[in-house]
Amino acid sequence: QVTLVESGGGLVRPGGYLRLSCVASGSDPDMRVMGWYRQTPGNQRELIATITSGYTPRYSDSFINRFTISRDNARKTVYLHIERAKLEDTAVYYCIADRNVETTPRYWGQGTQVTVSS
């Protein structure tokens, strides 16, 4: 069992930077892979990126360039760095964890709202 708590969401101006954090607690094997999804209004959740406990990242094609995922195993924390924010980045961002992500992850955070607006 894993509990995930996100933080760092809020209002950011277009072109700005935001870092989201997600702290995990629970079973280490169940957080071998951690990552981020997002959901924009009226759309399904989409995978942004994942990172393994060995620090191997993997990105969905749409999120290469402006999004960076990182992880601190000692703190059981995964981060999402959003650079050059765009209006279309406005969404609820969810942290996920599981032993693998070949299927829908079992563990989800509550989500954190990111709003990009001038």
**Helical amount among residues, as a percent range?**
under 10%
H/E order of the elements? EEEEEEEEEEE
Largest sheet: 7 strands, mixed
Q: Structural class of the secondary elements?
A: mainly beta
Which residues sit in consecutive blocks of at least 5 with pLDDT less than 50? none
Distance between the termini: 40 Å
Give the radius of gyration.
13 Å
Summed over residues and divided by their number, the pLDDT gives a mean of 95
Strand content: over 45%
Assign an overall shape: globular
Number of strands: 11
Please count the helical segments.
Answer: 0
Outline of the structure:
This protein is mostly beta strands. The chain is built from no helices and eleven strands. Strands 2, 4, 5, 6, 9, 10 and 11 form a seven-stranded mixed β-sheet that branches.
Which secondary structure elements does this structure contain, and how are they paired or packed?
Layout: E1 2-7, E2 10-12, E3 18-26, E4 33-39, E5 46-52, E6 57-59, E7 67-72, E8 77-82, E9 91-98, E10 107-108, E11 112-116
Parallel strand pairs: 2-11
Antiparallel strand pairs: 1-3, 3-8, 4-5, 4-9, 5-6, 7-8, 9-10, 9-11
Properties at a glance:
118 residues, mainly beta, 11 strands, 4-stranded antiparallel β-sheet
Task: Describe the protein's architecture and organization.
It is a single chain. This protein is mostly beta strands and about 120 residues long. It contains no helices and eleven strands. It has strands at about 1-5, 10, 20-25, 35-40, 45-50, 55-60, 65-70, 75-80, 90-100, 105-110, 110-115.
